[in-house]
Specification:
Elements: H1 5-18, H2 47-54, H3 57-64, H4 71-78, E1 83-85, E2 100-102, E3 105-107, E4 111-113, H5 126-136, E5 141-143, H6 151-157, E6 162-166, H7 172-184, E7 190-193, H8 203-207, H9 251-260, E8 265-270, H10 273-282, E9 286-289, H11 303-313, E10 320-322, H12 329-338, E11 342-345, H13 347-379, E12 392-394
Parallel strand pairs: 4-11, 5-6, 6-7, 7-8, 8-9, 9-10, 10-11
Antiparallel strand pairs: 1-12, 2-3
Bound molecules: flavin mononucleotide.
């Protein structure tokens, strides 16, 4: 083909259009008359622009953004591309069963909402709607310790199983006491988040500061905390080492928590086999392999790429939940085949909620369920127990 300037321009334009970098720049401006209805939505990516259209900019940026250059945020998607399937044919998969059991609790699908702060930023019904969406989907919800609605009220909002997530505070006793109260309210497990010892540098939020009038729960507005007596001034950073300041916490606190709390405690934020082994050694109930959806340490690996070595390091029976970047049923299938027991989704639930309220969050879970079921059927796998690493091929 002749190389003309026009041809070169067309190729460049096609490259830009296909680039994930171009996606955030495509801001659909919906005519209120022509916003897609819930029935028009065919995959969970499509909730995001509708949510973006419907909620305030700073809320959308808080939900969708990542840290620094958002490299890990992008890697959470590209990490899945190295993995393909090895489908098997002529297997009877007519009775597809997606149910699984976690800590003795049967759930209809191995997928559930991750703990994410402040659901009322997406919709006034907040976590009440999310809890009902999870229950309607036959699955559990892991409620954030920064929820907009107190955990006792959410506990009463639905009959479905619930876990509670802990951000430990400097006062260890009060952290443990909050877990005990959550357990009293019926939360069946604690996810202890360990990957945020320092606040992270979220540039979308810094740029939105003029828009952010009040302190959104879980959102740093960049104001500085009061410096404790004795802390050297140079330890303070221009962004501020603030809010969830638990940099002093270590494995000793996990022991204390495990001693006090009589339900399983999963350590959330594990990214290395070394730490997974330590969790087993200390007697944790399980782990959540997570990079916090690319919101804390940029250049942390995607979770799907570290999952194989983590699975190898722990006993096959040790419960592993995974999150960060899961958007397709095929993503879920890859993780389950490698050895995860269940997958949590963060942002998509909030996009569903922001776009269409409870019905949107319910549809997010339903689309993931349907995509997972179809992908398993096409791979010749009729249930979760039949999944094993032979389902996938991982390119090095
Ligand atoms: C808006 C938002 C708020 C979050 N708040 C919390 C939180 O309060 N506690 C926590 O452990 N993780 C929190 N996370 C991290 C999620 O639990 C989860 O690890 C992450 O969202 C998974 O990635 P995904 O959003 O790509 O699915 C939050 C994530 C988002 C997007």
């Amino acid at each position: 083909m002749k190389h003309t300037r026009r041809r070169a321009f067309e190729k460049f334009a096609a490259f830009l259009a296909a680039s994930p970098l171009a996606r955030p720049q495509q801001e659909p401006r919906y005519d209120p008359e022509h916003i897609p209805t819930l029935d028009d939505i065919v995959n969970i990516y499509e909730f995001e622009p509708v949510c973006r259209h419907r909620i305030p900019k700073q809320n959308y940026d808080f939900i969708s953004g990542g840290v620094d250059s958002e490299w890990t945020l992008r890697r959470n998607r590209s990490g899945f591309e190295r993995i393909t399937f090895r489908p098997r044919m002529l297997v009877d998969t007519w009775n597809m069963d997606l149910s699984t059991t976690l800590f003795g609790e049967k759930i209809a699908i191995p997928i559930f909402p991750a703990p994410t702060a402040a659901h009322q930023l997406a919709h006034p019904q907040g976590e009440m709607a999310t809890a009902r969406a999870a229950a309607a989907s036959g699955t559990l919800i892991c409620l954030s310790s920064n929820s907009s609605i107190p955990f006792d009220r959410v506990a009463k909002a639905s009959t479905g199983p619930k876990w509670w997530q802990l951000y430990a505070r400097e006062d260890e006793e009060s952290s443990i006491e909050r877990c005990l109260r959550a357990v009293d309210e019926g939360y069946k497990a604690i996810a202890f988040t360990v990957d945020g010892p320092y606040n992270s540098h979220r540039e979308r939020l810094l740029r939105d500061r003029p828009l952010t009038q009040s302190t959104m729960p879980g959102v740093s507005t960049g104001t500085r905390r009061k410096r404790p007596a004795g802390e050297p001034a140079e330890e303070r950073h221009s962004y501020g080492f603030q809010t969830q300041l638990v940099a002093r916490l270590d494995w000793r606190f996990l022991d204390k928590l495990l001693n006090a709390v009589k339900v399983p405690v999963l350590v959330k934020g594990i990214l290395t086999p070394e730490d997974a082994e330590l969790c087993v050694k200390h007697g944790a109930g399980g782990i959540v392999v997570s990079n916090h959806g690319g919101r804390y340490l940029d250049y942390a690996p995607s979770t799907i790429e570290v999952l194989p070595e983590i699975v190898q390091a722990v006993n096959r029976k040790f419960p592993i939940v995974i999150d960060s970047g899961f958007r397709r049923g095929t993503d879920v299938l890859k993780a389950l085949a490698i050895g995860a027991n269940a997958v949590m989704v963060g942002r998509p639930i909030l996009w569903g909620l922001g776009a269409y309220g409870e019905a949107g969050a319910t549809r997010v879970l339903r689309l993931l369920r349907d995509e997972l079921g179809i992908a398993m059927g096409l791979c010749g796998k009729p249930n979760i127990a039949s999944l094993d690493p032979s389902v996938v091929k991982i390119d090095r």
